[in-house]
Design brief:
mainly beta, five-stranded antiparallel beta sheet
Length: 138
């Protein structure tokens, strides 16, 4: 059965803690139903393959190392320190990132034990206290 093509099934909490409805929808990718959801800084896409859920995550972030200009002025580093992906209240992945990760990082992984309608939570926090949280239903 193909899921509905549109519907507000995802919530996001921005760094200011204000809850906002965000866009999410199902589409067909390679003939398979795929969930797409977004928050102010993240986009996810999930796909079901042979009993596994494949999750693709793109995060919009500068991921900048500390720099010093020719004049000696310093630009402080700004990077994601920690990213956590949870499913059903259990942690699937914890990433400890640093300034060596490229701008707008992309993460892809597959996991088992998921079912349609399950909740997935993705949170990140950077070295300046910023962060984002995305909650979506698979």
């Amino acid at each position: 059965m193909t899921p509905p093509l549109a519907g507000p099934i995802c919530r996001s909490r921005s760094p200011s803690e204000a809850a906002t409805d965000v866009a999410s929808r199902y589409a067909l990718a390679n003939g398979r139903p795929t969930l797409m959801a977004a928050s102010p800084s993240m986009r996810i896409r999930t796909e079901w393959r042979d009993g596994e859920c494949l999750l693709r995550l793109a995060v919009r972030h500068p991921m900048a190392p500390e720099r010093e200009s020719e004049s000696g002025a310093r630009t402080p580093a700004h990077f994601i320190e920690r990213i956590v992906v949870s499913h059903g209240g259990e942690t699937l992945l914890v990433g400890h990132w640093g300034p060596g990760i490229s701008q707008n990082p992309y993460l892809e992984f597959a996991f088992t034990g998921a079912a349609r309608g399950d909740e997935i939570v993705i949170e990140w926090q950077d070295n300046r206290g910023g962060g984002d949280r995305l909650v979506a239903r698979l």
